[in-house]
């Protein structure tokens, strides 16, 4: 997931990421500040910090840390579900222009394990092949976890659908019984009315 969004200084922006359990998540970000004189965003935003907060599906804070204007954060999920990742600028300078317009670039990678470049570039080809194999195995494990998580979600959705269909069926049966009862009661009431008026 790679994106950028605009924000006011000290304004909190959040995204929701659906993550399987026991999965490494790595986020890279960069903050740019709007320059009034140039009428464009500066390449960097010196003096600004970025406060990153990650909340689990059970509303537990998994990560809460202040970083610089450009940085990398990472965490490992222990619960499956929607994790909320929030970023809020926080000026590290004494004077803060709280109304400044910011552009935040964010790149989130779920389940990626990066190769150790020093090993890859090593002369010993056996170590390089071994490192690449380990990387592939980690990727296979991640794909397997993703598939298991999707199966769990599909099973949960199927059960919910079946319960809803069952409830609709019972409600239709109850409605039919109520309509039949009201019809029988109306026929009996009309019959009694006609008999009392000696019309039949």
Automatic annotation (TrEMBL):
Coiled coil: 119-146
Keyword DNA damage annotated: no
Pfam families reported in the protein's UniProt record: EMP24_GP25L
Domain of life: Eukaryota
Topology term for the membrane: Single-pass type I membrane protein
Keyword annotations: Coiled coil, Endoplasmic reticulum, Membrane, Signal, Transmembrane, Transmembrane helix
All residue ranges annotated as the GOLD domain in the record: 12-110
TM region(s), chain numbering: 168-187
Cellular location(s): Endoplasmic reticulum membrane; Membrane
InterPro entries: Emp24-like, GOLD_dom
GO cellular component, as recorded: endoplasmic reticulum membrane
Matching PANTHER family: TRANSMEMBRANE EMP24 DOMAIN-CONTAINING PROTEIN
Assigned protein family: Belongs to the EMP24/GP25L family.
Protein name per Swiss-Prot or TrEMBL: Transmembrane emp24 domain-containing protein 11
Provenance organism: Eudyptes filholi
Gene: Tmed11
């Amino acid at each position: 997931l790679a994106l950028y969004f605009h924000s006011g200084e000290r304004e909190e922006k959040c995204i929701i990421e659906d993550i399987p359990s026991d999965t490494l998540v790595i986020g890279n970000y960069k903050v740019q500040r709007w320059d009034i004189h140039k009428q464009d965003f500066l390449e960097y935003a010196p003096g600004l910090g970025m406060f990153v907060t990650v909340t689990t599906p059970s509303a537990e804070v998994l990560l809460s840390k202040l970083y610089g204007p450009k940085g990398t954060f990472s965490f490992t999920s222990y619960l499956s579900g929607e994790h909320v990742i929030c970023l809020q600028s926080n000026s590290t300078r004494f004077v803060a222009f709280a109304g400044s317009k910011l552009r935040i670039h964010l790149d989130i990678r779920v389940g990626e394990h990066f190769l150790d470049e020093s090993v890859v570039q090593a002369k010993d080809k056996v170590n390089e092949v071994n490192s690449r194999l380990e990387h592939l195995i980690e990727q296979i494990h991640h794909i397997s976890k993703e598939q298991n998580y999707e199966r769990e979600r599909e099973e949960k959705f199927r059960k919910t659908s079946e319960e809803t269909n069952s409830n609709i069926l019972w409600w239709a049966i109850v409605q039919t019984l109520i309509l039949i009862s009201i019809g029988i009661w109306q026929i009996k009431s009309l019959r009694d009315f006609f008999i009392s008026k000696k019309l039949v």
